Amino acid sequence: MPPESTYVEEPQAKKGIISRSELDARCKAGELLIVVNQKVYKVDKWIKHHPGGQLAIRHCIGRDCTDEVRALHPDYVLEKKFKYFEIADYLPRESDPEFAPIIGTRTKEEIFEAQEVQISSAYRQLEARLRAEHLFETNYINYAWEFSRYLTLFTMAIVLNIYGTCTTHYIASALCLAMFWHQISFFAHDAGHNAITHNLQIDNGIAIFLADFMGGLSIGWWKKSHYVHHIVTNHPMHDPDIQHLPVFAITTRIFQGLFSSYHQKEIVFDRASQFIVSYQHYLYYPVMMMGRFNLYLQSMLFLVSEPNYSYRKQELFGLMIYWTWYPYFLKQLPTWNMVIAYVLISHMFTFMLHVQITLSHFGMSTEDLGDAESFAAKMLRTTMDVECPKWLDWFHGGLQFQAIHHLFPRMPRHNLRAAQPSVKEFCEEVGLKYHIHGFIKGNKIVYSALKDVADQVAFFVEVAKHEAKEYVEAQRIVLPERKKDM
């Protein structure tokens, strides 16, 4: 059992069968019920101990989340841990006695739901085929080569920093360090998804070492937001990865304001947001260059405020080590001007990582098609892959296959390219579009998407002013003229 699992499970008594209508009623009454593999599980007591955070579970309450659970959890979780929370078998809507539509009279919603069930079935068959091809198994030689690349970059950064004698050496050191941070993020990402050793404790240890000790960032913070992102990808109200006001708005839906379920606060499109978003397409790359500084802040806020996080001490120790060795790097530099230049170069040149991350989502759909939409359909609708030559995979870290990664988050990155032909075949079979573009075209798509939203800000402001004026006129009380005394 991992350290975060301090809760002692007690098997819950099985209570027969729960229908779709009963599931809805019980969830509305406050019970935390989810459906996995046609079984109903009550997670009221477990939710606060969930390693991926409470919100990842709350987005699954009251619905069949089999694909999400299978995609994001090791097999042993389903085989050994879930049984402690099972309370009933599930009677799906199609066989629910209370739902017996006459043949030929099904609504569009019911037809859509039936289609999504078929897509989900085909997706599970695809997963089984890829497992049979051993694409979920780790090739440790690939990670050994990656580690040697990281070690080379870090060593060069040290040598050029400590033994450097001129500006060129120091700049080269900062660039090596930036590339080191860029590259280890991919390794930490796989470890965070438990996709390296498939042992939660070992992979978490790898992730903490790379993210906290070597990168100064909290892997726990990343997990909390990233797992939610994988479940509600590109949903304006729920996905923290697209909630970036006052700097970015990737959909006009945010103009009216909304409540962020992740941040638990209202997101308001105020005057500052209106001004900045109007220029967001110009600010995209400069802001990406500043992204790492924001990650420091988010990491510290998480470790200070997050309750029930079992690795808090380990991560705080890791950050303490990071903020010891990095300032030591800076201490070796001859002037304050060089210190400032070193900090900016080493941080700003990690912008490519932030571009790579946002590239796959900022230009994609932000619609909400409801709970009936299948996991596979949602991932392919909201995510773009980036096409590049195989020899360049090392630079993109393998995560240029972001759509495939979203379908199979626990598949090691070095196997994503091999899975691509099967994913394309799957999309053709079920009628889904597989979005893939070259790196340059992908950037153009994101730029155009940001510009389209920016161009509508002025129109929104004018409409808002007009509506406000009409409201004031409608509410104006016109007092009758007082008659003059005769």
TrEMBL record:
Recorded GO MF terms: metal ion binding; oxidoreductase activity, acting on paired donors, with oxidation of a pair of donors resulting in the reduction of molecular oxygen to two molecules of water
Superkingdom to which the source organism belongs: Eukaryota
Record domain Cytochrome b5 heme-binding: where: 15-91
Pathway(s) this gene product operates in, as recorded in its UniProt entry: Lipid metabolism
Subcellular location(s) of the protein: Membrane
Key word Iron present: yes
Transmembrane segments: 282-304, 339-359
Pfam short name (any one): Cyt-b5
Entry membrane topology: Multi-pass membrane protein
InterPro entries associated with the record: Cyt_B5-like_heme/steroid-bd (IPR001199), Cyt_B5-like_heme/steroid_sf (IPR036400), FA_desaturase_dom (IPR005804), Fatty_acid_desaturase (IPR012171)
GO cellular component: membrane
Keywords: Heme, Iron, Lipid metabolism, Membrane, Metal-binding, Oxidoreductase, Transmembrane, Transmembrane helix
GO biological process: lipid metabolic process
Family affiliation: Belongs to the fatty acid desaturase type 1 family.
Protein name from the UniProt record: Cytochrome b5 heme-binding domain-containing protein
Organism: Modicella reniformis
